[in-house]
Amino acid sequence: SKSEGSGATAQFGTMTQTLSKKQTNHINVYPNPFSKTTNLSYTLTRPGLFTVNLFDISGRLHRRIDKETKSTIGSIILDFKGLNSGIYFILFKSGDYRATKKVIMD
Of the residues 6, 9, 13, 79, which has the maximum number of CB atoms within 10 A of its CB? Predict the structure, then answer.
């Protein structure tokens, strides 16, 4: 059974290398937890329109940002001023790509 495990690791390693050569959509939110503002960085396969929606834990929409980018890599500052401390969800949409990040405001 040891050799089976090694085979799976080798296959996984190969798959990871294959994926890393191709640019993929990705977002990151930092710092998290945060106090009033946080940064959202993005990497996209192609430039264009994107939307950032900010929901509270009950699903209520608090902020919506529509932007167009001419670059595939960038970042924006998300302003949470005026909102209560708690858990929020950021929904990022660009073309067919969707990503959700859970964030905590202190």
Answer: 79
